[in-house]
Amino acid sequence: MKQNILQILIDHQGCFVSGEEISKTLSVSRTAIWKHINSLKGEGYDIKALPRNGYCLKIRPDILSLEEINIGLQTSVLGKTLHVFDEVSSTNDLLKKMAAEGAAEGTVVLAEHQIKGRGRMGRPWLAPKGGGLWFSLVLRPALKPFQASQLIFVSAVGVCRALRKYTGLPVAVKWPNDLLLDGKKVCGILTELSAEIDLINYIVIGIGINVNQQVWELPPELQHIAGSLAMSAGHSFNRAGLLRSLLFELEQEYHDYLARGFDAVLQRWRQLDSTLGHEVIITSGGESFTGVARDIDEMGRLLVKTPEGDLRQVMAGDVSLRKK
C-alpha cells in the first residue's frame, strides 16, 4: 500500500493530490493514507500536506528502499524477489546461503553497507554506507560448469552498458571484470559458483559500484586507482534509478546470451574494452610477465603476445595497463 501511495505521489510530483482521491483510487481509509505518508516522510521524502489540498511530493531522497526500487523496475526476473538490508557482512555470502536453500533465479540481495565486502582473490572491497551500490544476484542457467566463466563477461557487458546509458559517462571494461572510468576502477564484479560434475546449481554474481563517493572518502592508498561516477560527472546520481537500469540491462544481456550464445557477448565486450591493443602486465600464480593484449578467445581467455613473440593464454590473474 505504501508503494502504491508513493507511486501516485510520484505520478503527480510537484502537484497536490487530495487524500480523498488517493482513498478512492486505492480503496483505503484516509487515516491509513496519513500513516503511510508519515512513514514516507520518516524515510526522507519531502511531502507537503495542506488541508483541502492534499499531499504534494517535493523531493525524492536517494535511498535504497523496496518501494523506491520497485517503482519503475522493468525486469521480468531480476529483482522480482528483492531483499534490502542496512548492513550485512557480505551480500554474496548471504545470497549463497539463500541460493543453497532454494532462492529463485533473479533473487537480489542489496545492502547499504558491507562489513566484509570482497573482490577477486579474496581482497577486501571498501563498501561504505550511502556512497555506492553493493548487491548480489543469483542465476540458475542450464549450462555446463566450464561455461560459468562466460557469465563474468555477460555481467561486465550488462553493467557497462547500463552505466553508460544512465550516466552518459564513457565507462569501459578491463579484462575480465573490472569497469574503469578516467583510468580508475569504479566497479568490480565477483562470481561464485555451486556446481556438480555436469551441471550448474547456481551462480551468485556480486557487483560493487562506487556511485557518489568523493575522493576524500577513499583511503589515501586507493585514491590513485579508484574513482566514482560522481567524481567523473561532477554531480551525484540517484542510486535506486541506477539500480533499476542495471537490473534491466543485466537481464537483457543474460537472456540474449542464453538465446544466441557467447560470441555475441564477446563482440559487445570488445566494443566496450579498454584492454586490447595495450601493453599489459600480467600477474598470475606467482608469475609476472608483460606483453600486448591482442584478443580474447571463445573461452574468455586473454591472449597476450609477449616480447619474445609467444601468444600466451591467460585464464585468471591480475591485469594492469602498462603506463607509457
Task: Explain what the structure shows.
The structure is a single chain. Helix content is 31%, strand content 28%. Strand 6 (172-174) and strand 7 form a beta hairpin. The chain has 324 residues and is α+β, with helices and mostly antiparallel strands. The termini are far apart. It is built from nine helices and 14 strands. It has a seven-stranded mixed β-sheet, with helices on both faces.
Brief summary:
The protein is of the alpha+beta class and 324 residues long.
Count of individual helical segments: 9
Share in β-strands: 25-35%
Mean pLDDT across the residues is 90
Helix content: 25-40%
Which residues form runs of ≥5 with pLDDT under 50? none
> How many runs of DSSP E, i.e. beta strands?
14
**What would the principal axes of the Cα set say about the shape?**
elongated
Keywords:
about 30% strand, five-stranded antiparallel beta sheet, alpha+beta, seven-stranded mixed beta sheet, 9 helices, about 325 residues, about 30% helix
